[in-house]
Write a structure and sequence with these properties.
Shape: globular
Largest sheet: 15 strands, parallel
Domain F-box/LRR-repeat protein 15/At3g58940/PEG3-like LRR: 126-215, 287-387
CATH architecture of the largest domain: Alpha-Beta Horseshoe
CATH superfamily of the largest domain: Ribonuclease Inhibitor
Domain F-box: 41-70
Region (Disordered): 1-34
CATH class of the largest domain: Alpha Beta
Mean pLDDT: 81
CATH topology of the largest domain: Leucine-rich repeat, LRR (right-handed beta-alpha superhelix)
Helix content: 25-40%
Strand content: 15-25%
InterPro entries: F-box-like_dom_sf, F-box_dom, Leu-rich_rpt_Cys-con_subtyp, LRR_dom_sf, LRR_FXL15/At3g58940/PEG3-like
Biased composition (Polar residues): 1-28
Length: 513
């Protein structure tokens, strides 16, 4: 009844829509079963792979189980792979990389309670994954210098390498730098295999390709001095909680490198000598000076006078009162392109904020945290003169309802404001602010919370590596490709013990912005 004839070849069968009879509400089904009809067989593999890219990890895994073709298409076009790198994964490597033979981004992670994969497994991965361009290793303590050297020989196309909490040392790192000539991004965190500063790490064959170096929580930071100095085309440098005499290193780099754009210096042995050295990087656009108590207004003035392209400036004065109005006024006068300014524990007053508001007409993001000198007058000055301001964070400052009323009539482009631990501000005036500016997003917490510093800490939020999610499944191998954020265990440990409570003052106010 209105049905097309079927053919003997199942691949050419066409499903005819069911017809609803006027005498019955139940549809009439075709004579042949329709379960074998593949509506996607005319879709090219490239288009099918493109569709898979828009699916979540779980949906993509489910789709790979639909049929052999989908399994094959998914495997050949899966470029990112994340593995829970336990020792038991060894037996899964051949079948895993036979299916996923186009992987260019690989993440290996093992928790502290488990034994990680060893050199044999690591080398086997390198043999089957020679197209690898990005590698991330976390907690793989069984990998030695020899394993790292063998891996580098097989994966010479690496462009980005990040590892933390590993046990290999200078020999393994030098092997990577010697064999991976295209390496551009190197991130090293809590490397345990370097026991003294006798063995240095040189840039090797990657000297001309390295563009970004991040060193974090290294006890023997002096071993990496030659690496930083020898990277001639370096554009991003982040040194966070690393021991060593960094004034000397920065002086040498200042005389040889004019390409640096992004610099993050946190809790390292550095003084105004180092700031004067980095002031020679005239193209610098982003600067973070975090908890360096020996730095003062003198060093900041040197930077401001020479680095006139600054767009983002973060200063955590650690309440040492060595950086204040003098340095900030110099920034305001010489850096008109400033778009983001974060001041934590810095004694800024109306004198400097007025100059910043007048000269930095492009300022869009401002954070004032843990500063006793910030009051109603300072906020009123910002409200009246910062016309381009879009996002404002005020935390731990001595302001009252007067400041909030000033914001209600100023800053016409303001879209978001955070008010934390400002006990002089009432909820009633905040409600009035929201009524006055209906589109404004207000995040208000008068008392603040004890754990909030962990969520917004610059020490652990800036420059941190993005982790990968490893859901538990049957067996010892887990495959995923959706990134998520992971906080360092060190920060979590400090938060749980309640240490450094004074540092919980919003160190990175724009983390979620």
């Amino acid at each position: 009844m209105g049905q097309s004839a079927s053919t003997s070849n199942s691949s050419n069968r066409v499903l005819t829509p069911a017809i609803v009879s006027s005498s019955s509400q139940s549809p009439e089904l075709p004579n042949e079963a329709t379960a074998d009809v593949d509506y996607t067989e005319d879709i090219p593999d490239e288009c099918l792979a493109y569709i898979f890219q828009f699916l979540s990890t779980g949906d993509r895994k489910s789709c790979s189980l639909v049929c052999r073709r989908w399994l094959l298409v998914d495997g050949r076009n899966r470029h990112r792979l994340s593995l829970h790198a336990k020792v038991e994964i060894f037996s899964c490597i051949p079948s895993l990389f036979t299916r996923f033979d186009s992987v260019t981004k690989l993440s290996l992670r093992c928790d502290r309670k488990s034994m990680s994969l060893n050199d044999d497994t690591f080398v086997m991965i390198s043999v089957r994954c020679q197209k690898l361009e990005r590698l991330k290793i976390r907690g793989c303590r069984e990998i030695t210098d020899d394993g790292m050297a063998a891996f580098a020989e097989n994966c010479k196309n690496l462009r980005k390498l990040s590892f933390g909490s590993c046990a290999f040392g200078t020999k393994g790192i030098n092997a990577v730098l010697d064999h991976c000539k295209a390496l551009e991004d190197l991130s090293i965190k809590r490397l345990r295999g370097i026991h003294d500063g006798a063995n240095t790490i040189a840039p090797g064959a990657a000297a001309s390709s390295l563009k970004s170096i991040c060193l974090k929580e290294l006890v023997n930071g002096q071993s990496f001095e030659q690496l930083v100095i020898g990277a001639k085309n370096l554009k991003t440098l982040k040194i966070i909680r690393c021991l060593g005499d960094w004034d000397k290193v920065l002086q040498i780099i200042g005389n040889e490198n004019n390409l640096l754009i992004d610099v993050h210096l946190e809790r390292i042995q550095m003084s105004d000598i180092g700031l004067a050295a980095i002031s020679k990087w005239v193209n610098m656009e982003i600067l973070h000076i975090v908890k360096t108590p020996e730095c003062s207004n003198f060093g900041l003035v040197c930077v401001a006078e020479n680095c006139k392209q600054l767009r983002k400036l973060h200063i955590d004065g650690w309440r040492t009162n060595r950086i204040g109005d003098e340095g900030l006024i110099a920034v305001a006068k010489h850096c008109p392109n400033l778009q983001e300014l974060v001041l934590i524990g810095v004694d800024a007053t109306q004198a400097s904020l007025a100059v910043i508001a007048a000269n930095c007409q492009k300022l869009e993001r401002l954070a004032l945290c843990g500063t006793g000198s910030i009051g109603d007058q300072e906020i009123a000055c910002i409200a009246a003169k910062c016309v381009a301001l879009k996002k404002l964070c005020i935390k731990g400052c001595a302001i009252s309802d007067v400041a909030i009323r000033a914001l209600a009539w100023g800053c016409p482009n303001l879209v978001k404001i955070k008010l934390k631990q400002c006990r002089g501000v009432s909820s009633e005036v905040v409600e009035c602010l929201q009524r006055q500016k209906a589109s404004l997003v207000v995040n208000f917490d008068a008392a603040g919370s004890d754990n909030e510093g962990l969520d917004a800490s610059m020490s652990d939020g800036v420059g941190q590596e993005s982790g990968l999610e490893f859901p538990e499944m049957s067996g010892q191998m887990v495959v995923a490709d959706v990134p998520s954020n992971s906080n360092g265990r060190l920060a979590l440990f400090r938060a749980k013990l309640g240490l450094f409570a004074i540092r919980n003052l919003v160190a990175c106010a724009f983390r979620r912005w």
